[in-house]
Structures are given as C-alpha cells and as structure tokens.
Automatic annotation (TrEMBL):
Native source organism of the sequence: Salegentibacter echinorum
CC annotations in GO: membrane
Keywords: Membrane, Transmembrane, Transmembrane helix
CDD domains: SQR_TypeB_2_TM
Protein name: Succinate dehydrogenase / fumarate reductase cytochrome b subunit
Amino acid sequence: MSIFFRKFIIAATGLFLCIFLIVHLSANSLLLLPEASARGLYNAYSTTLRENPLITAVSYLLYLSIIFHVIYAAIITIKNRKSKGTGYRVNHKQENSTWASQNMGFLGVFILLFIVVHLVNFWARVKLGIGESVGLDVDGNTDVYEITYTLFHNIYYVLFYILLMIPLGFHLHHGLKSAFKTLGFYHKKGLRVLAKISLVYAFVMSIGFGVIPLIVYFK
Ligand code: HEM
C-alpha cells in the first residue's frame, strides 16, 4: 500500500473528526448556560441525536474514522521510526520541522487515552447502558446533563479533561495543516491563510473543551 494512500486516509478521516469536534463543542457549550435551562436543552439535544437514524449512521462513520485514523497513523509512525537512520523517512524533516509534527504519534497516544476514558465516562453509559444506570429528567429524556455535572464536580476528572486538551490542541494544529497539504489544498498562495485557520481552529477547540469542565465545576 502506498504512503500516499495511507496519508490520504489519515487526512480524510482527520478532517471528518475535525468537523465532528466543531459540532460536539457547539452542543457541549449548552453546558455553559445556567443550570435551569442547560439541563433541559442538553438532554433534549442529546435525545434528538440518538433517536435520529441519519445521525446514528453518521456515528458509525465516526467510529470507523477514529479506528482507521489510529491504525494508519500508527503504521506511518512505526515506519518512520524504522526508517530513522536508514537515510529514508516517510516524513521529510525540513518540510515538517515543528515539535508537534515530529511527535504526532506521541500526541496521538494521549488523545487516544482521552477518548477511551471519555467514552467510558459518557458513551458507554448513555449508548451501551454499561456502568451506573442513567436517570431521566422531568421531560423523560436521558439525563446526560447529570452525568456531566457529577463528573465535572470531581476535581481529578476536571484536571484530566483540562490537561488532555493541551496535546489535543497541538495535534489538531499540526494535523489540520497536514491534512490540507495531503488533500492538495495547501498551495503556496493560500499557505498562510490555511496555517492561520489551523491555528485558530486548534486554539478554539482546546480552550473551548477545556473551559467547559472548569465552568461546570464552579456551577
Ligand atoms: C467538555 C468536554 C466534553 C464533553 C462534556 C463531552 C460530552 C459527551 C457526551 C455527553 C457524549 C455522549 C453523547 C450522547 O450519546 O448523548 C459524548 C460522546 C463522544 N465524545 Fe465527547 N465531550 C467532550 C469532549 C470531547 C472531545 C475533546 C472529544 C474528542 C477528542 C470527544 C469525543 C467524543 C466521541 C467520539 C463521542 C461518541 C459520539 C457518538 O457516539 O456519536 N468528546 N461526549
């Protein structure tokens, strides 16, 4: 399998995951509202998504994207490591010389750790019914807000969620730039604009997701 094909899969799935994060952050920003309105809105939104067959289909695409992104990224990282010292590298050092670009695999491991813990915290309980059962709110919707509220009143989880947004930010910054390049959008003219978009995107995502646990903690 060619290096380009592997890089294409990483870039395409990565872009899809970036779009998911925009939607996910927008939905989770409901948690910043005062509790009286946040609970009802967050739970109603979450129920609407879960009951929509089209969104369910997109969710499966999301899980596949995470799996393929991780597998192909792991293959490229391992190949890069092996080719070190042989005079051949899959990634050219001069082109990709930032700290994040040299450590995407290392950053990715932290993000994978975050996603596993995060899915156990929420997804496994809400979607698979694994772990402590989740109650209903006054409107009869699954009380996902309560899980969030309880989790983010535990200082260790708050710190975990905030700290893990640092590698996420670095990974998204380099990853988005890299995806634009692989998919052919990164021409000399637009280089600065796309680099700025990647920086702003990574900043908004990491600060946005990092601020939510902190604000909920003080609610
Ligand atoms: C403040 C931070 C976050 C909160 C409060 C949060 C909350 C949630 C909740 C409640 C769910 C379950 C949704 C449902 O089924 O109703 C969920 C699912 C998920 N979250 Fe997050 N999330 C946060 C950050 C993140 C981040 C940073 C990532 C990725 C790096 C992420 C990735 C996912 C994924 C992949 C799912 C499964 C989606 C699906 O089944 O369709 N989340 N999150």
